[in-house]
Amino acid sequence: MARHIHATTLILAGVPVHVVAARLGRADPAITLRVYAHVITKQAATAADVFAEALRSTA
């Protein structure tokens, strides 16, 4: 469980997936992408919200 929390926290903080994969001891980041796809999707939605807010602020 600590491993999952560690990886999730790093991904949500914006650490590149290949770096997270290396910290987990994985040679192939594709495995990390598959396992943590739900976190990456959430991160993308958050990025979209930040961008939308930035656009509203400049209008």
Task: Write a compact overview of the structure shown.
About 80% of the residues lie in helices and about 0% in strands.
Give short descriptive properties of this protein.
59 residues, mainly alpha
Draw up the topology in text.
Elements: H1 2-12, H2 17-23, H3 29-35, H4 37-58
Helix pairs in contact: 2-3
Protein name: Integrase
InterPro entries: DNA_brk_join_enz (IPR011010), Integrase-like_cat_sf (IPR013762), Integrase_catalytic (IPR002104)
Domain Tyr recombinase: 1-49
Description:
- With 59 residues, the protein is mostly helical.
- It has one domain.
- 80% of the residues lie in helices and 0% in strands.
- The longest helix is centred in the C-terminal third of the chain and has 22 residues.
- The radius of gyration is 14 Å and the shape is elongated.
